[in-house]
C-alpha cells in the first residue's frame, strides 16, 4: 500500500436555510481529502469542521450509502449524481477528483420537489404518483401459487430492468423540463411486462399520468438526459412504452375505462 | 374538485398532438421540397406546370391548405404550451448546467425547439407574403410565372442570405424533432431506436441541404 | 386468552427486587407443532368486519415488516397510520438486502419441506430460538412468495418461465428466491406498493419524516406515540388502539456496520425504557465478506455477497508483518486458513465461523492492507480454472463495486475483506402473538427477537419480516383488539402531555450542553469500544471494560456534546445525537447480556467457552433460554429474566464444520 496522498478540494455548496429565504452558493475548502473517501464522507468531514467552528452543517439526505435506497441526490457540477455513469451520489468516490478541483453542489431543482433546507428537498410527489395505481391490486392471501402463471424470461428481465428504479428523482433533477416521465414510465413498464399487471393497465397509466401532471412536473421532450444520469440506467424506451399504453388506454381500452369510471 | 382533467391535454397528450402535427408538417416539408426541386430543371415550364397543377386542384387545394394550417396552428399551440409548462416546472434555475453525456439526447437543438420553431413561423409568414400573396407575374401563355418569380427573388443577395439563415433552422428543428415525434407517439423500440435517431439526423441534413441548395444555386448559377 | 398483566404491575415487580423472575408467558399454543398455528388462529377472538374501521393502529417503520403489516391491516379494514424517518416508505433499510428470501416451496425438487426449513432455522440459530415461532415462519413462507409474485415482484426465472432458486448461506437445498442482487429492494417495493394502494383507498395515512421518540401508555397499555416532525422540528402526538414497532435492528450501535445511516435503536429503546423487555441483546451477526475500513472518515460498511466465497479463496501471509504485495508472496508462504482449519467446508463455513477465523489471524498480526485489518479473498485460482469471462459473468457487478470503492482491481490483485456487523438477532421480547411485555405494543421484523436464535441464516430475515407483517400480525392483533378494555383515548390526555414534556426536555437538554464534541465523534468511540469488546469474540475482562468505558462515554456525551442548530426545523445532527444517547445505553445492555451468557452460541462467542480447537462451546444445560432484560431506571442495574426454551422437535446437537 502506498502512503496516502491527500487533496485540497474547493466546494461551492448551495446553502438555503429554508424555502422562503433565497439561497446562494457558499465557498468552502477542505485541504485533506483522502481519495478513499466517498463524496458524502467528504461532506461528513466538512460538517464535522463546521460544527466545531460553531457553524451550521450542510444538510443533505443519505441512508444506505450503497446506491439502492434512493435517499441521496446532489447535482454535482451540473450533473445529477455526478459525473460517473450508473451510480448514485453516495457511490461517487473522491478518487475521481484531482487536487485543487472546484466542485459545485446544488439540490434537485423542480417545483414539484419543494426545498426543505440546503441540499434536501421533498420528493413525496413521487410517492403520490405510485399512490395513483402504481401497484397491482391484490390483498394478502388472495394470491394463487407462484407458479400458476409462467412468465417468459425475457419479459421478466425487462420488468426487472425497469423495477430497478430507486426512486431517487435524479431523472427529474436532470430533465431540462423537470419531467418525472422516466420515474413514472419505469413503474408502468415493469407492470406492463408482467401478466399480473395487465388487468389494471389502462386505469394505471391514466391515473399515474394524471398524478404526475397534478404534481406540476414538466412534459417530456425526449431530451434523454434522465437516462444518462439514472443510477440504474433505466432506458427512455420505457417512456415510449408508457405513451403506447396511454394511447391504448384512451382508444382500444375504452370499454375498460367506461367500466372503471362507474 | 378543480378543473376537470382532460386526458388529451395531459403532458402525454399534448406531446402526442405536437408529434402528429409535427409529422404532418414534416411531410409537407418533404413534398414541398420535392416540388421545388423542379426549379433545377432546365425547362422553366416544368415548374410552372407543377404549380399550375396545384392551383387547378381548386377547392381540394384549399382544403389541404386548411388542414395544413390547422395542423400548423395545433403544432404552435402545443409547442408553446409545452414550453410554458416546462418553464413553470422549474422556476429556480441551476447555477451550473451541464450535459451528462451518452446516451443523453440533449443537444442545443433539443433545448431550443421553441426558438427554432418561432424562427420558422416568422419565416413562413414572410415566405407567404413573398411567394403566395405577393404579386405573381404571368407568362406569355397566361400561366403564373412562379419560376421567373423565384429566380428573380433569389437574384437579390439579401433574400438569399435571409432565406439561407432562416431555413437553416429546419436543421435545428428536425435534428431533434423527427426522432422525437416517434418517441412521443410511443413508436420506438430497442431494435431500431438507434436507427431512428440517425434517420432524424439524415433527414434533417437532407431537408436543409435541399432547401438551401435552391437559393444558393439560383444565385450563383442561374442567369436571367 | 388473558392479557399480559397491566403495566401498573411492573413497578410492584421492581420492588420485589430479590423475588423470583417475572414469568414470561410466550403463549405458545398447545398441540403438535404442525397444528399450533392453525389451532391458534381458530382459537383467537375475531374483530367483526364492521368494527375494524373503529380501530386505529399506529405502525412505526415501513420496512418489510412495517409496510406489509400496515398494508395487510388496512386491507382487513383497520385504520392505519404509518410513521417513518425517511422521506418515502420505500427508503427503509430493507431495500438494501441483496441475496434473497427463503421459502419451503421445494420447487427445486431437492427434498426441501416446511419441516426442513424449520429444522435448518432452529439449528442455524444454534438452538436459541423458539421452536413454535420458527415452525410457523416456515409454514407461511410459501404464501409470501405467492403474494410477492402476484404483486409483480420480478423474481428471477428460468427459460421455461418458472421461478429459479439458488442455495444460499450454506443451505443444502436450493430454497432461496431472488431478484438479481436486489431482492430486498423488490420485496420492499412490493410491500410499499401494497401500502400505497391502501393510502389510495383512504385506509392508511402516511407520516413521512417522523421519528418516534417515545411511547405513550394509558392504564398500562400502549395507546400512542410521540414523534418529532423532522421537517419542522415540532413534537406531535398520535393516539391509537395498538402500536406496531417495525423499526429494524440496532447494528448501528457499533458505529460501523452494513446498516444504513438512519437505522437506529431509538424507538425500541424508548419502549424498553417504558417497560418492554429486551431479549438477547448480545446476539449480533457479523458478516465475513465486507469491504474493509479505509480510514477514520469511514461512515458505514458495504457488504459484498457471500456468494464470492464460492469461488474465492481466503488467505493471509504465514508470517506476521509481511509488507509485500499479495502477488509477491509465493504460494508456500500463504496460509489458506479456512481450508486448513475446516477441511470439509473450507471457504464455505458459516458466517460466524468465517468471521472469527479472520479476526483471529488479524489479531495475530497477519492481517493485510494498510490497516492490517483485512484478509485476502483471492480469485486467481478460479480465474485460471474458469477463465475471466466466467468470473466476470458471475461476479462482474461485485468486482466493479469493489473497484469503485477501493480503487483496486480484483481481477489483478486479490480482494481484501473483513467482517462487519450486519444483523441483530436480539430485540424486543415478544410472545407468540408478537406482543411485547407492554399490552398493545407489538414488535415485528428485525426489531423483535423471536425467530433466529443466536444466529440468522442467510435469506431468512426478509422471510421473517414479511411473515410477521403479511400473515401473522393480521390474525394475532385481532385477539387483543377484540378482548375489549380499550377505552377511547385522545392525545389531549395527561399521559400524552407528560410524555411530550419528557421528550421536549430531552431535546432541550441535548441542545443546551453546548460542549465541544459532535455526536458522530462520540458515536465513533462507542463503536470502537463495542467492536473491540462486544464484537466477534468476547471475554469477561473485555465486557467489563466495555461497561465502564460506556459509562465514561455517557458522561462525555451528556457533558461535552455539541449539537449545532436549533430544535425547530430540519436538523439531522440533532436527530443523530438523540440516537447516540440510546446507543450508549443499549451498548451497555449488550455487554451485560454477553457477560451473563456464559457460553458460546451462534454469533455470541465467549473466549472462555471454547473447545480446545477454539470452536464455540454451547451450554444447553444452563443457557437454553432467552434472556429478557428489564429496565429498572436510569443508572440502576437492569434485571435479567428468562424464558426457557424446550426443543421437542429438533434435537440440539453441536455444530461442526471440520
Ligand atoms: C446489507 C444488508 C444485506 C442484507 N441482505 C439480506 C438478505 O439477502 N436476505 C435476508 O433475508 N436478509 C438480509 N438482510 C437483513 C434484512 O434486510 C433486514 O433484517 C430486514 O430488512 C429488516 O426489516 P425491518 O422491516 O425489520 O426493518 P427496516 O427495513 O430496517 O425498517 C425500519 C423502518 O423503521 C423506521 N424507523 C426506524 N426508527 C424509527 C423511529 N424512531 N421512528 C419512526 N420510524 C423509524 C425506518 O424509517 C424504516 O422505515 C440484509 C441486511 C443488510 C444490512
Ligand atoms: C415547418 C415547420 C415545423 C415542423 C416541420 C416542425 C416539426 C416538429 C416536430 C416533428 C417536432 C417533434 C414533436 C415531438 O417531439 O413530439 C416538433 C417539436 C416542436 N416544435 Fe415544431 N415544427 C415546425 C414548426 C414549429 C413552429 C412554428 C413552432 C413554434 C411555436 C414549433 C415549436 C415546436 C416546439 C416547441 C417543439 C418541441 C416540443 C417539445 O418540447 O416537446 N415548431 N416540431
Ligand atoms: C427555397 C426554398 C423554397 C421555395 C423556392 C419555395 C417556394 C414556394 C412557392 C413558389 C410557393 C407558392 C406555391 C403555391 O402557391 O402553390 C410556396 C408556398 C409555400 N411555402 Fe415555400 N418555398 C421554399 C421553402 C419553404 C419552406 C422552408 C417552408 C416552410 C417552413 C415553406 C412553406 C411554404 C408554405 C406553407 C407555402 C404555402 C403552401 C400553400 O398555400 O399551398 N416554403 N413556396
Ligand atoms: S428512473 Fe432512475 S433517475 Fe429516475 S427515480 Fe428511478 S432510479 Fe432515479
Ligand atoms: S430528460 Fe426529460 S425530456 Fe424526457 S427523456 Fe428524460 S424526461
Ligand atoms: S444513500 Fe442510498 S442511494 Fe445513495
Report what the structure shows.
The complex is a heterotrimer of chains A (262), B (224) and C (658). Chain A has 262 residues and is α+β, with helices and mostly antiparallel strands. Chain A has helices spanning 39-52, 124-131, 153-163, 170-174, 181-192, 201-214, 225-229, 237-250, 254-261; strands at residues 7-15, 24-33, 75-76, 79-80, 102-106, 115-117, 120-121. Chain A is 35% helix and 13% strand. Chain B is mainly alpha-helical and 224 residues long. Chain B has 8 helices and no strands. Chain C has a 5-stranded parallel sheet. The chains are: A alpha+beta (262), B mainly alpha (224), C alpha+beta (658). Chains in contact: A-B, A-C. At the A-C interface, α1, α2 and α3 of A face α4, α6, α7, α12 and α13 of C. One protoporphyrin IX containing FE sits between chains B (15, 18-19, 22-23, 25-26, 29, 75-76, 79-80, 82-83, 113-114, 117-118, 120-121, 173, 177-178, 180-181, 184) and A (219, 221-222).
Write the layout of secondary structure elements.
The complex is a heterotrimer of chains A (262), B (224) and C (658).
Chain A: E1 7-15, E2 24-33, H1 39-52, E3 75-76, E4 79-80, E5 102-106, E6 115-117, E7 120-121, H2 124-131, H3 153-163, H4 170-174, H5 181-192, H6 201-214, H7 225-229, H8 237-250, H9 254-261
Parallel strand pairs in A: 1-5
Antiparallel strand pairs in A: 1-2, 3-4, 3-5, 6-7
Chain B: H1 11-36, H2 44-56, H3 59-89, H4 108-111, H5 113-131, H6 146-153, H7 157-184, H8 193-221
Chain C: H1 9-15, H2 36-43, H3 49-52, E1 56-60, H4 64-76, E2 79-83, E3 101-102, H5 114-124, H6 131-151, E4 165-166, E5 176-177, H7 183-200, E6 204-207, E7 210-218, E8 221-229, E9 235-239, E10 242-245, H8 266-273, E11 278-279, E12 284-290, E13 313-317, E14 334-335, H9 337-341, H10 351-363, E15 375-378, H11 380-386, H12 388-406, E16 415-424, E17 427-428, E18 441-443, H13 461-482, H14 494-512, H15 519-533, H16 540-560, H17 572-596, H18 620-623, E19 625-630, E20 639-644
Parallel strand pairs in C: 1-2, 1-10, 2-6, 10-18
Antiparallel strand pairs in C: 3-5, 4-5, 7-8, 8-9, 11-17, 11-19, 12-16, 13-14, 13-15, 15-16, 19-20
Helix pairs in contact in C: 4-7, 4-13, 5-6, 6-13, 11-12, 15-16, 15-17, 16-17
Amino acid at each position: 500500500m502506498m502512503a496516502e496522498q491527500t487533496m485540497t478540494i474547493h466546494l461551492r455548496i448551495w446553502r438555503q436555510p429554508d424555502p422562503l429565504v433565497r439561497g446562494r452558493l457558499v465557498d468552502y475548502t477542505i485541504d485533506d481529502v483522502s481519495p478513499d473517501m466517498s463524496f458524502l464522507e467528504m461532506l461528513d468531514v466538512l460538517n464535522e469542521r463546521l460544527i466545531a467552528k460553531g457553524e451550521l452543517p450542510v444538510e443533505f439526505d443519505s441512508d444506505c450509502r450503497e446506491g439502492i435506497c434512493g435517499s441521496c441526490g446532489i447535482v454535482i457540477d451540473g450533473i445529477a449524481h455526478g459525473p460517473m455513469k450508473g451510480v448514485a451520489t453516495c457511490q461517487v468516490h473522491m478518487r475521481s477528483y484531482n487536487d485543487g478541483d472546484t466542485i459545485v453542489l446544488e439540490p434537485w431543482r423542480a417545483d414539484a420537489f419543494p426545498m426543505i433546507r440546503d441540499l434536501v428537498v421533498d420528493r413525496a410527489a413521487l410517492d403520490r404518483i405510485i399512490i395513483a395505481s402504481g401497484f397491482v391490486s391484490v390483498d394478502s392471501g388472495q394470491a394463487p401459487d407462484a407458479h400458476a402463471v409462467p412468465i417468459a424470461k425475457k419479459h421478466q428481465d425487462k420488468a426487472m430492468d425497469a423495477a430497478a428504479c430507486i426512486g431517487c428523482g435524479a431523472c427529474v433533477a436532470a430533465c431540462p423540463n423537470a419531467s418525472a416521465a422516466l420515474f413514472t414510465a419505469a413503474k408502468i413498464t415493469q407492470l406492463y411486462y408482467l401478466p399480473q399487471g395487465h388487468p389494471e393497465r389502462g386505469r394505471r397509466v391514466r391515473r399515474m399520468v394524471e398524478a404526475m401532471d397534478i404534481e406540476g412536473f414538466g412534459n417530456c421532450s425526449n431530451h434523454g438526459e434522465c437516462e444518462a444520469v439514472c443510477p440504474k440506467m433505466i432506458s427512455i424506451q420505457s417512456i415510449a412504452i408508457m405513451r403506447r399504453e396511454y394511447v391504448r388506454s384512451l382508444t382500444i381500452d375504452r370499454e375498460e375505462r367506461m367500466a372503471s369510471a362507474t | 374538485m378543480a378543473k376537470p382533467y382532460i386526458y388529451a391535454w395531459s403532458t402525454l397528450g399534448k406531446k402526442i398532438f405536437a408529434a402528429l402535427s409535427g409529422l404532418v408538417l414534416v411531410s409537407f416539408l418533404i413534398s414541398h421540397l420535392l416540388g421545388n426541386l423542379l426549379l433545377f430543371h432546365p425547362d422553366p415550364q416544368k415548374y410552372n406546370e407543377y404549380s399550375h397543377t396545384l392551383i387547378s386542384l381548386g377547392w381540394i387545394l384549399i382544403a389541404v391548405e386548411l388542414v395544413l394550417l390547422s395542423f400548423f396552428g395545433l403544432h404552435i399551440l402545443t409547442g408553446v404550451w409545452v414550453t410554458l409548462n416546462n418553464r413553470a416546472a422549474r422556476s429556480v434555475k441551476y447555477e451550473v448546467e451541464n450535459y451528462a453525456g451518452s446516451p443523453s439526447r440533449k443537444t442545443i437543438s433539443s433545448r431550443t425547439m421553441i426558438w427554432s420553431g418561432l424562427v420558422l413561423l416568422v419565416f413562413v409568414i414572410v415566405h407567404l407574403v413573398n411567394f403566395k400573396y405577393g404579386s405573381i407575374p404571368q407568362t406569355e401563355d397566361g400561366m403564373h410565372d412562379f419560376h421567373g418569380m423565384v429566380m428573380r427573388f433569389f437574384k437579390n443577395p439579401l433574400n438569399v442570405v435571409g432565406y439561407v439563415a432562416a431555413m437553416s433552422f429546419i436543421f435545428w428543428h428536425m435534428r431533434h424533432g423527427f426522432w422525437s415525434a416517434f418517441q412521443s407517439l410511443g413508436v420506438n423500440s430497442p431494435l431500431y431506436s438507434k436507427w431512428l435517431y440517425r434517420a432524424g439526423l439524415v433527414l434533417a441534413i437532407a431537408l436543409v441541404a435541399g432547401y438551401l441548395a435552391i437559393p444558393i444555386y439560383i444565385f450563383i448559377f442561374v442567369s436571367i | 386468552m388473558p392479557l399480559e398483566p397491566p403495566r401498573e404491575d411492573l413497578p410492584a415487580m421492581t420492588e420485589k427486587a430479590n423475588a423470583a423472575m417475572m414469568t414470561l408467558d410466550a403463549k405458545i399454543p398447545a398441540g403438535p407443532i404442525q397444528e399450533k398455528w392453525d389451532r391458534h388462529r381458530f382459537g383467537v377472538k375475531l374483530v367483526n368486519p364492521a368494527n375494524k374501521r373503529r380501530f386505529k393502529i399506529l405502525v412505526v417503520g415501513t420496512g418489510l415488516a412495517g409496510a406489509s403489516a400496515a398494508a395487510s391491516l388496512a386491507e382487513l379494514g383497520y385504520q392505519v397510520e404509518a410513521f417513518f424517518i425517511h422521506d418515502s416508505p420505500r427508503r427503509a433499510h430493507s431495500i438494501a438486502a441483496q441475496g434473497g428470501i427463503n421459502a419451503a416451496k421445494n420447487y427445486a425438487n431437492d427434498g426441501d419441506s416446511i419441516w426442513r426449513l424449520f429444522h435448518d432455522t432452529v439449528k442455524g440459530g444454534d438452538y436459541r430460538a423458539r421452536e413454535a415461532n420458527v415452525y410457523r415462519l416456515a409454514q407461511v413462507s410459501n404464501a409470501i412468495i405467492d403474494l410477492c409474485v402476484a404483486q409483480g415482484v420480478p423474481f428471477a426465472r428460468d427459460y421455461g418461465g418458472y421461478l429459479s432458486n439458488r442455495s444460499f448461506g450454506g443451505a443444502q437445498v436450493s430454497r432461496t428466491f431472488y431478484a438479481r442482487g436486489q431482492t430486498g429492494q423488490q420485496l420492499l417495493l412490493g410491500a410499499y406498493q401494497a401500502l400505497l394502494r391502501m393510502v389510495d383507498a383512504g385506509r392508511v395515512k402516511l407520516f413521512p419524516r417522523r421519528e418516534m421518540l417515545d411511547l405513550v401508555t394509558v392504564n398500562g397499555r400502549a395507546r400512542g406515540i410521540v414523534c418529532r416532525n423532522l421537517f419542522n422540528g415540532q413534537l406531535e402526538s398520535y393516539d391509537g388502539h395498538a402500536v406496531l414497532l417495525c423499526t429494524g435492528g440496532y447494528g448501528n450501535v457499533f458505529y460501523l456496520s452494513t446498516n444504513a445511516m438512519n437505522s437506529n435503536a431509538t424507538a425500541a429503546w424508548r419502549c424498553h425504557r417504558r417497560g418492554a423487555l429486551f431479549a438477547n441483546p448480545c446476539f449480533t451477526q457479523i458478516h465475513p465478506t465486507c469491504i474493509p475500513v479505509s480510514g477514520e472518515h469511514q461512515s458505514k460498511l458495504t457488504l459484498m455477497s457471500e456468494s464470492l466465497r464460492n469461488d474465492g479463496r481466503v488467505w493471509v501471509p504465514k508470517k506476521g508483518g509481511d509488507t509485500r504485495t499479495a502477488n509477491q508472496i509465493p504460494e508456500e508462504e500463504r496460509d489458506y486458513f479456512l481450508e486448513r482449519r475446516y477441511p470439509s467446508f473450507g471457504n464455505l463455513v458459516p458466517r460466524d465461523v468465517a468471521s472469527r477465523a479472520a479476526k483471529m489471524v488479524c489479531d495475530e498480526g497477519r492481517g493485510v492492507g494498510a490497516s492490517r485489518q483485512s484478509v485476502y479473498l483471492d480469485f486467481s485460482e478460479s480465474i485460471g480454472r474458469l477463465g475471466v469471462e466466467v468470473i466476470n459473468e458471475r461476479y462482474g457487478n461485485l468486482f466493479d463495486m469493489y473497484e469503485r470503492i477501493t480503487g483496486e482491481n480484483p481481477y489483478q490483485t486479490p480482494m481484501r475483506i473483513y467482517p462487519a456487523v450486519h444483523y441483530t438477532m436480539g430485540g424486543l421480547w415478544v410472545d407468540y402473538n408478537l406482543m411485547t411485555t407492554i399490552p398493545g405494543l407489538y414488535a415485528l421484523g428485525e426489531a423483535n427477537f423471536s425467530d433466529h436464535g443466536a444466529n440468522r441464516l442467510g435469506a431468512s430475515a426478509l422471510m421473517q419480516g414479511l411473515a410477521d407483517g403479511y400473515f401473522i400480525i393480521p390474525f394475532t392483533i385481532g385477539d387483543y383488539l377484540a378482548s375489549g378494555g380499550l377505552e377511547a383515548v385522545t392525545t389531549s390526555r395527561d399521559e400524552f402531555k407528560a410524555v411530550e414534556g419528557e421528550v421536549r426536555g430531552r431535546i432541550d437538554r441535548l441542545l443546551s450542553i453546548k460542549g465541544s464534541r459532535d455526536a458522530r465523534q462520540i458515536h465513533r468511540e462507542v463503536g470502537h469500544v463495542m467492536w473491540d469488546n462486544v464484537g466477534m469474540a468476547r471475554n469477561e475482562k473485555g465486557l467489563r471494560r466495555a461497561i465502564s468505558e460506556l459509562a465514561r462515554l455517557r458522561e462525555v456525551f451528556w457533558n461535552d456534546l455539541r449539537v449545532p442548530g436549533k430544535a425547530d426545523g430540519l436538523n439531522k445532527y440533532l436527530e443523530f445525537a438523540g440516537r447516540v444517547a440510546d446507543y450508549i445505553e443499549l451498548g451497555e445492555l449488550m455487554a451485560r447480556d454477553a457477560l451473563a451468557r456464559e457460553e458460546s452460541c451462534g454469533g455470541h462467542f465467549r473466549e472462555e467457552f471454547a473447545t480446545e480447537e477454539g470452536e464455540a462451546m454451547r451450554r444447553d444445560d444452563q443457557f437454553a433460554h432467552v434472556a429478557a432484560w428489564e429496565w429498572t431506571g436510569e443508572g440502576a442495574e437492569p434485571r435479567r429474566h428468562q424464558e426457557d426454551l424446550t426443543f421437542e422437535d429438533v434435537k440440539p446437537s453441536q455444530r461442526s464444520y471440520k
